[in-house]
Amino acid sequence: MSDQMRDGIIKRGRTWSYVVREPDPATGRTRPRWVGGFPTRKAAQAARDAARHALNRGTYVAPQELTVAAYLDQWLEAHANQVKPSTLRSYQEKVDLYLKPSLGSLRLQALSPSRLSPVWRELYASGGRGGTGLSVRTVEFARAVLRRALNDAVVDRLLEVNPVLGSKLPKRDGKPQHKTWTGEQVSSFLGAVAETRWAPLWELAAGTGMRRGELMGLRWTDIDLDEAIVAVDRSTTQIGKDRVTTSPKNHERRRVAIDPHLVLVLRSWRKQQAEERLAWGEAYEHTEGWVFTWESGRPLLPDYVTKNWIKAQQASGLPRLTLHELRHTHATILLRAGTPVHIVSKRLGHKDPSVTLNVYADVIPEDDQSAVQIFSQAVWGGAS
Questions:
Q1: CB contact at 8 A, 216 and 285
Q2: I need a labelling partner for 84 at 20 to 30 A (CA). Which of 5, 63, 207, 233 fits?
Q3: How far apart are CA 206 and CA 329, in angstroms?
């Protein structure tokens, strides 16, 4: 070696490099690894010492030129058969729309909390179409996808630590808010669509708080009209023009009670479907017992349901809601009426009541005054 070489550090041109002996995963033997580009000998020495320390602890990560974009492509491909198609599509969307444009060209190992925090702020301020801002929830989801991907990078020894964990999200402006209807508005809407084909679908959505995919995944064998119970055992999403059915979100299978009105609505709908089956005869397509179908028995596509929901609201004169906000409406009406959080959580299929508390924090405090009155009545007989 040149006389410039000392303690595993050498100057090459204008920069400094160091060498360590790293284990070869194929043979178990050590091999030299040169790492360069340091502006000073001191910087190279510090990096060398850190690498030696990591080797001794068994946490050494070999330097690589792998970019964020290339890693995320590999990660999505590896997870294609490990997650639901709808989940994979959602991950791919966040990667393509937000993560690759902001971070894709960077080296994976160059990421740090200080590099990521400004990215979340930029997405919040101008990460949408035409430079519009994104919601905090969307940015949180994009961050969560990257966090999960880089957790796997740590396991695969591409990173020593996950840099997402120390990054800071933009602050929410107050408590999360949801657009919802009142009970009177729900009743008005259902009255306005009572004569349309999909009225039973909107009735069940409003009366149970079920997700779109859960409604599309319902079979008649899931519904016990005598016991007034709906079993939520699966969820159906749409990939291209195909229906794909899996377990419910978070794998939270559950039983949801329905009221006598919904029992009558579903009995009537089942009777109508049976009459359609007779009318179509052998041409009827309905072979798997789906609850919501066309006259021919062909099951509904989830994306059509969303489009028809928008159309159904047009003549109502009510504030516009997304279909998912009808779920929020169901929960909000129950919580404001004093229904215990754990009961609402169970109806919605949340993994834990704390999720319900977090999502509906803007609803529950409105009942604080009634709690004061209940306590006052119990202890002091209502005297002030």
A1: no
A2: 207
A3: 8
In whole angstroms, give the CA distance from residue 321 to residue 330: 13
Mean pLDDT of the chain: 86
Tokens at residue 380, please? Answer: 């002091």
Q: Please name which of 32, 38, 49 lies closest in space to residue 12, comparing C-alpha atoms.
A: 38
Structure token pair of residue 148: 């999960």
In this structure, which long-range contacts are made by residues 44-53, counting pairs with CB atoms below 8 Å and at least 24 apart in sequence? Answer: 44/9, 44/16, 44/17, 44/18, 45/7, 45/9, 45/18, 47/18, 48/7, 48/8, 48/9, 48/18, 48/19, 48/20, 51/18, 51/20, 52/20
Nearest to 200 by CA among 335, 321, 312, 322: 312
Output the pLDDT for position 3.
Answer: 47
- pLDDT per residue as tens digits for the range 165-211: 989 888 766 555 678 999 999 999 999 999 999 999 999 999 999 99
CB-based contact 327:348 (threshold 8 Å): yes
At residue 147, what is the residue type?
Answer: R
Q: Which residue has the higher pLDDT, 177 or 272?
A: 272
Cβ 266 vs Cβ 249: under 8 Å = no
% of the chain surpassing 70 pLDDT: 90
Whether residue 29 contacts residue 23, with contact meaning beta carbons closer than 8 Å, is answered with yes
Kindly indicate the confidence band of residue 321, based on its pLDDT and cuts at 50, 70 and 90.
Answer: very high
